[in-house]
Write a structure and sequence with these properties.
The protein has about 100 residues and is mostly helical. It has one domain. It is built from 3 helices and no strands. α1 (about 5-35) packs antiparallel against α2 (about 35-60) and α2 runs antiparallel to α3. The longest helix is centred in the N-terminal third of the chain and has 28 residues, at about 5-35.
């Protein structure tokens, strides 16, 4: 078994999927129990980033390029949502 063996890559990707999924669970705990609203916003941003990583890893496992496009859309939506929520938390309104 060498480092270029496809089985090693598949095991590594599946392990990464498990780790990233566990991180989503931990971040969701912070969203629910976060002591402050900024903690919750950061945890939601981390969840969005982890979901993008899950989509990319899933695209690598299944060899479907559609999931890469989905991950790009999720990244854009996650960024816009984080900016909107951060503005709401700091200023109290999103649109002036």
């Amino acid at each position: 078994m060498t480092a270029s063996d496809p089985a090693v890559l598949e095991i590594t990707i599946r392990g990464a999927l498990i780790v990233v999924s566990g991180l989503c669970v931990l971040c969701s705990y912070r969203v629910i129990r976060g002591p402050t609203n900024p903690d919750r916003v950061v945890a939601l941003d981390a969840i969005a980033t982890n979901v993008v990583a899950i989509a990319v890893l899933f695209a690598l496992v299944t060899d479907r390029g559609l999931f890469i496009t989905v991950s790009l859309v999720l990244a854009i939506i996650g960024f816009i949502a984080t900016v909107a929520v951060a503005k709401f938390v700091t200023e109290g309104e999103v649109i002036e």
